[in-house]
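call fold(seq) -> tokens
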Amino acid sequence: MKKFLRIVLCIMGLFIALIVVFWFCISYTVNYKKTTCGISVSPDGKYELILQAIGEPDWPFGSASGRLVLKEGEDKISQTDFELHNDGGSISSNCWRVTWYEDYVEVILSGEEQFDEQVNLYFDGTKDIRQLTDNVGDYISR
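ret:
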């Protein structure tokens, strides 16, 4: 009888452990997994800007978390997290436009359910984020 009880408890423990591992894998993928969606390199090849999706969009039609990472060689200069409201769609290379300037890079992030967002990442590590409105030249600084 003790041997049978021990086998049943081991099977139940193994089953619970498998459920916990499965839950952690799903949680990591949905909330924390970093996926590179696009890379832009400066014209001189010195700087690199990486667009990353963090996790998956909120279900069913929520925002998607993302990150912009500016690097000089292997050194990270700055990173900026953002939320993209794109009707439940994932972050992709279609949601950003990149323009390189002498001392900064300008990124325009576009989503179906939000105004475009302008992110300026300066090569000294500072950043400027603005929400663009319908009026040309108007912006809401954040």
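The chain has two domains: 1-31, 32-141.
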